[in-house]
């Protein structure tokens, strides 16, 4: 396998991987473990190693790798024992595991799959086979994650759009309400302004018909009063224009000051 590693390094088939995933290698054969670590390092993976199952379990919990490549036949705790412990721990239960084994019997494969193995790689294997198996398994993990992120992003955009529509709808309702209030106020002011004008017009007419100073003084007094009343209403219109905002209109409606 060392020649294959040198060949892989020189050709650099996988050096342009756009990720730096963490791979835990659990392998009791020291040379094989070292070779696999070099293969993964050449391919821009962050490879960590353990030479027995117990050490592998410890690293799986502390390092939380993206994927575990585990040998099946190991002393003390074999690959099946490692996989069982991984699947029973909430911290490690979802980490994909690829078994490496020289046993290719149907019963062995079934046993691993029933325990939750994600894939098998049989000995002997080439660096390309190892990397391809890991790449495919990682891609299957990332695809649901990407879809989930895309869904969450689109959902958030939908929520934001809905909120913006609600805000714009509220602004439209406020504008319509203000327009109605302004119309009501305008109608009332027109009515209030017409009364003094009618009295002024009548007083001018009577003033022309007056036969005595007493009558003229009376109608002049009426003119002065109605003029003052008209000016007061005009000043109120100016003040009302400054106060008549959507916010103030709501307050006035809440206190039944406006219909």
From TrEMBL:
UniProt xrefs under SMART domains: REC (SM00448)
Q: Name one Pfam family in it.
A: Response_reg
Task: Report keywords, A-Z.
Answer: Phosphoprotein, Two-component regulatory system
Answer whether the UniProt record assigns the keyword Metal-binding to this protein. Answer: no
Where is the PTM 4-aspartylphosphate found along the chain? 71
Among InterPro entries, the record links this protein to:
CheY-like_superfamily (IPR011006), Sig_transdc_resp-reg_receiver (IPR001789)
Every Response regulatory domain range: 22-138
Q: Which SUPFAM superfamilies match?
A: CheY-like
Q: What is this protein called?
A: Response regulatory domain-containing protein
Q: Species name for this entry?
A: Nostoc cf. commune SO-36
């Amino acid at each position: 396998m060392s020649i294959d590693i040198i060949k892989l390094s020189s050709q650099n088939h996988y050096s342009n991987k756009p990720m730096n995933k963490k791979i835990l290698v659990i392998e009791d054969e020291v040379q094989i473990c070292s070779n696999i670590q070099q293969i993964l390092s050449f391919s821009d993976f962050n490879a960590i190693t353990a030479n027995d199952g117990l050490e592998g379990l410890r690293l799986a919990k502390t390092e939380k790798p993206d994927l575990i490549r585990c040998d099946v036949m190991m002393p003390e705790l074999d690959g099946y024992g490692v996989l069982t412990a991984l699947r029973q721990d909430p911290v490690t239960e979802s980490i994909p595991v690829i078994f490496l084994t020289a046993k290719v019997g149907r019963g062995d494969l079934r046993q691993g799959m029933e325990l939750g193995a994600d894939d098998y790689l049989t000995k002997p294997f080439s660096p390309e086979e190892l990397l391809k198996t890991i790449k495919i398994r990682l891609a299957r993990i990332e695809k649901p994650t990407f879809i989930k992120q895309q869904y969450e992003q689109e959902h958030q955009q939908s929520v934001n759009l809905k909120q913006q529509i609600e805000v714009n709808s509220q602004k439209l309702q406020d504008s319509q309400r203000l327009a109605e209030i302004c119309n009501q106020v305008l109608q009332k002011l027109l009515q209030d302004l017409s009364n003094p004008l009618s009295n002024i017009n009548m007083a001018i007419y009577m003033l022309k018909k007056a036969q005595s100073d007493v009558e003229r003084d009376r109608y002049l007094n009426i003119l002065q009063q109605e003029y003052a009343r008209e000016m007061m209403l005009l000043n109120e219109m100016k003040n009302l224009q400054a106060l008549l905002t959507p916010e103030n209109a709501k307050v006035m409606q809440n206190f039944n000051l406006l219909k």
